[in-house]
Every structure is written in C-alpha cells, then in structure tokens.
Amino acid sequence: MSAPLPPAEFEAGLRAVGRERYHDKHPFHILMHEGKLNRGQLQAWVLNRFYYQKLIPRKDASLIARADDIALRREWIGRILDHDGTKPGGGGIERWLRLAEGVGLDRDYVAGCAGVLPATRFACDAYVHFVREKSLLEAVASSLTELFAPDLHRTRIDALLANYAFANEETLAYFHNRLVEAPKDVAFGLDYVLRHARTREEQTLCVAALTFKTDVLWAQLDALHHAYVSPGLIPAGAFVPENAA
Fold this sequence. Notes:
By secondary structure, the protein is mostly helical. Helix content is 71%, strand content 0%. It contains 11 helices and no strands. The protein has helices at residues 7-21, 27-33, 39-66, 70-84, 92-102, 107-112, 118-133, 136-142, 149-163, 173-196, 200-228. It is globular, with a radius of gyration of 18 Å. The model has no long low-confidence stretch (mean pLDDT 96).
C-alpha cells in the first residue's frame, strides 16, 4: 500500500478539487455574476438554495451525534448556531429568508419548500445521507468546499450590488456573515482532516468526499439551469416565475 502523502501535498490535492470542480464555474453562476438572470430566475435560485440552507443544521447535528471527540463536538456546534441563530430573528436561515423577501418571494412559501425542484431535493438529501452514513472523517472532509466559498461570496456580493436592484446590505447580509464564519469553520475542518487522514486510503477517501460535495452543489445548479434557463422545462409542482411562458 502506498505511503500517505505529506500534509502539504495532501492539502494541495484537496484544493485542486475546488479549482477544477467548484460551482463558481457553473454557467448559471456565471450568468448571475454577469447580471444576465431575470427576476424569476433569481427567485428560483434563492428558493432552491434555501432547501440546502435548511438542511445544513440537520446535517451538522447528525455529524455531532456520531462524534466521540469532545473538541470536535464543541467546535462543530457553532455551525448549527450560525445557521439557526441563538434567538429568533438571528442566524443564517433567517438572513436567507430576508434575501428571499428582497427578491420578491413570500417567506412562508420559501420556508415551506413546496416549490423546490425534485433534483434539488435529491442532491441535498443525498448530502445529508452521506454525512450520516460515511465515516466521520469523510463527513468532515465533505465540508471543505468552504475552502473555496469566501472568494465566491466576495464575487457574488460585488456582482449582485452592481447588477440587481434588490441587492443591498440587508438582503446580502447572509453572504457578508459567511465571509467571517466560513474561514473559521474551514480552518478547523482542514486541520482535522490533515491530522486524521493518516493513510493514503483515508486521504483518497477525503478527496472523494470533497468531490462528492462539489457534485452536490453542481447538480443543484444543473437543475436550475435546465428548468429556468435552457431548455426551460419546469417540473410539475415546482416554482413557476411570473414571467415564465
């Protein structure tokens, strides 16, 4: 069996996944950042992305429930608090609902997830099942898409402010907060993976876990592009924008 890669080489392999596969390269994101999405397409993105945001605390809670490591549990619980908040009116989920209101959606409709695309549900549910069923190391490794998120958030903030009337400090508060939260989260997660992946096999599994997570994110945008951009085939029961044919 091959010897484990040196930590720097292993980390470089993880970062290579983001350079090659992160969803900032998806055509839907490119259209968004170029100001080429219409109101209905933006609404569809906000609505469908909420389903992912809604499942993140459940995913993180399932990870904590499996962890014997007190330090891991103590650190990871902060992710749940970041999303759920410590009191009503706080947290990332609430900030995302304010974004939804900003693009003209009803917050109760968004929170109920009735109009979410089937492919969005399948992709996000698959991520939750992955974290519940794979090894704890693989579950932590799958979170490392956060390595690449801050650059995307900065680009997104600038692009939305430049191109869309709904964008302001209030509606984009979720992304501003993630610029602070994500680097803290990923520093712990990356250190954990680098220290606990002690064999080449474990390192390979970690890279595969991160690859899986990039596939989850990419699949969500594939579904949005297919339904709301080209060819524009919206599944029965999914959200239909007011400007849809």
